[in-house]
Each structure stands twice: as C-alpha cells, then as structure tokens.
Amino acid sequence: MRFHCKAVAGLLVALTVASMSLAQFQFGGRGGSDLMTLLNNPQIRKELGISDEQTEKIPDAVFDALSKVLDAKQAKRLREIQLQQKGDRALLDTKLQAALKMTDSQKESVATILRGY
Q1: Quick check: 55 and 38 in contact, CB under 8 A?
Q2: How does DSSP assign 50-113, residue by residue?
Q3: What is the chain's alpha carbon radius of gyration, rounded to the nearest angstrom?
Q4: Which band of pLDDT confidence, cut at 50, 70 and 90, is reported for residue 2?
Q5: CB-based contact 91:97 (threshold 8 Å)
Q6: With the CA atoms of 106, 103, 75 and 25 taken in that order, what torsion angle do they form, in degrees rounded to the nearest 10?
Q7: Are 24 and 32 in contact (CB under 8 A)?
C-alpha cells in the first residue's frame, strides 16, 4: 500500500513539473525571463498590443541599448555575428544594404532569389 502511495505522489510531482515546464515553453521558455524570447512570441505581442511597426523596430532598439553597454569593438563584433547568424538572409538587412550601397534593382534581385528557396 505504501508503495502505491509513493508511486502516486511521485507521479503527481512529475506531472506538476511537466505542466509547469510546458507553460514556460508556451510563453517563452526558460521561465520567460529572456525579453527577446518574450517579444518574439506572437501570443505575448498580441497580449501587449505590439504593432507590426513596433515589432520591426525592436531589434534596432535592442542593439542601440546594447551599444550603450558594450564598447565599440564589442558592438561591431556582435553585429557581425548577428549577420553571420542570418546567413544569406543578411542581404535583406536594410543597414547592410545601405553599407553595401545596393541599388533598388539589386535589392529586388536578392529578395527574388531568396524567396525562391
């Protein structure tokens, strides 16, 4: 009888932990403490009423804030890593396009090629 009570208690604890983990995963993972993870979650953006225009501005705002904490070399390297992580989609980045002095025709060609796969 004791074994069954312990088994049921253990199962209840396991289910409680699993449900808490699932809730955290649904709302950003890692307990929802990472602000970028939260802001990338469509449910959170909807709840906060964040517009598409605001969503587009968030990455630049975060980078600008980080630039106040990091020195110039760190900020530059972070930007490089960010572009590397984007892969070929980095060519859609408006700041990179401006730095490369891409023409409108080149921008359209890149977008067309990237849509192809």
Answers
A1: no
A2: --HHHHHHHHHHHHHHHHHHS-HHHHHHHHHHHHHHHGGGGGG-HHHHHHTT--HHHHHHHHHH
A3: 22
A4: low
A5: yes
A6: -40
A7: yes
CA distance 49 to 105: 35
Q: Are 25 and 32 in contact (CB under 8 A)?
A: no
Which position has the token pair 């598409």? 52
Residues 6 or more apart from 87 whose CB is under 8 A from it?
none
Q: Residue 86, Cα to own-chain centre: how many angstroms?
A: 12
Q: Tokens 């900020």, residue?
A: 75
Summarised one tens digit per residue, pLDDT across range 39-84 is 989 999 999 999 999 998 998 899 999 999 999 999 999 999 999 9
pTM, entire model = 0.60
